[in-house]
Amino acid sequence: MKFQVTVLGSGSALPTLSRNPSAQILDLNDRLILIDCGEGTQVQLRKHKVKYQRIDTIFITHLHGDHYFGLVGLLNTMELMGRKKDLTIVAPKGLKEILDLQMKYGGAYFNYKIRFNELTEKSPELVFEDKIVKVHRLPLKHRIVCFGYKFEEKAKAANIKKDVIDKYNLDYKDIIMIKEGNDLILDNGSTVPNKDLVIPPRKLRSYAYCSDTSYNEELVPYIRGVDLLYHESTFLHQDAVKAKKTGHSTTKQAAKIAELSEVKTLMLGHYSIRYLDLEPFKREAEEVFSGPVIISDSGLKINIDEHVTIDQTTA
Ligand SMILES: [Zn+2]
Ligand SMILES: [Zn+2]
After folding, report:
1. Out of 66, 78, 134, 251, which residue is the most buried by the measure of CB atoms under 10 Å away?
2. How far is 23 from 74, CA to CA, in rounded Å?
3. What's the gap in Å between 254 CA and the centre of ligand 1?
């Protein structure tokens, strides 16, 4: 199954000609999840040929404009293009009220249903779950209520080894039982362990999205060992005072969280407009984090498989 992140924006507060504000697509075998929706996201979706009507769930981290100002526009475009499919939006409390007002005074309506899951700091940690993915909210430390999200692939029922069915003359009931993880008891009373009957399951993949936040070690147990961590790095180390004051992180702080959490790969982003050259971001992060560091940029696609790799054909 495909488990791929597409970056649509990597800048902080101000959209510029070279950097859009925060938005990413998580593609789970053509079933699309949108994470944040800064201004201009729908243009980015078109530019990078994302089939936006396939988005069925949207996660918004917080209500600073650079993370959701593109949302009402995208929802409206979905309506104009004839959407009928339901949409789920997971976001901090307040977003529904904002959208309702925009719709009310614009005399607009949607022909598709939007289900809201509005979060507070008291909401359950598991915020979304379906057959293929489960999503937990993550504690971020920012100037307003802000949640990161961890996306984890769910285990599928195990596949039985081909030769086993004939060898033990298994019937339908046996197969179900083995797929559920049970051992097989033979007529002579001996036991065949489950691991000898099924194909070993593939490693389950995970992605954590953490923006915006100041340095927060509370995050570490939540994101331990994820395949890919996106952690904001609004500032370089030289601007650490500014980072602290504005509720953001520096490259070195993002890298320290990645190192403490033993994540496989770190992706940086949410760069302040003051930096044109992003090479120092990579350099500084690599001084602290021992794994690979990716500098996010619009259009970049990252495949999460056995390893985390940049999709060179489409980047
Ligand atoms: Zn932001
Ligand atoms: Zn913010």
Report:
1. 251
2. 12
3. 15
Other beta carbons within 10 Å of 313: 6
Report how far ligand 2's centroid is from the alpha carbon of 26 (Å). Answer: 21
| Cα–ligand 2 centroid distance for 227 (angstroms) | 25
Task: Identify the nearest ligand to the CA of 12 by its number.
Answer: 1
CA dist 303 → 28, 51, 142, 312 (Å): 11, 18, 29, 10
Q: Among all ligands shown, which has an atom nearest to the Cα of 64? A: 2
Taking the C-alpha atoms of residue 137 and residue 147, their distance in angstroms, rounded to an integer, is 6
Cα dist from 220 to 10, 258, 267, 299, whole Å: 23, 8, 16, 28
What would the pLDDT profile of 30-53 be if each residue is shown by its tens digit?
Answer: 899 999 999 999 999 999 999 999
| pLDDT one-digit tens code per residue, 158-207 | 889 989 999 999 999 999 999 888 999 999 999 999 999 999 888 899 99
* Nearest-angstrom CA–CA distance, 59 and 91: 6
Rounded to two decimals, the pTM is 0.92
Ligand nearest to the CA of 62: 2
187 counts as catalytic? no
∠ CA 70-74-76, nearest 5°, is: 125
Residue with tokens 């194909």: 199
In the chain, the N- to C-terminal Cα span, in Å, equals 20
Q: Which residue has the tokens 């309702």?
A: 100
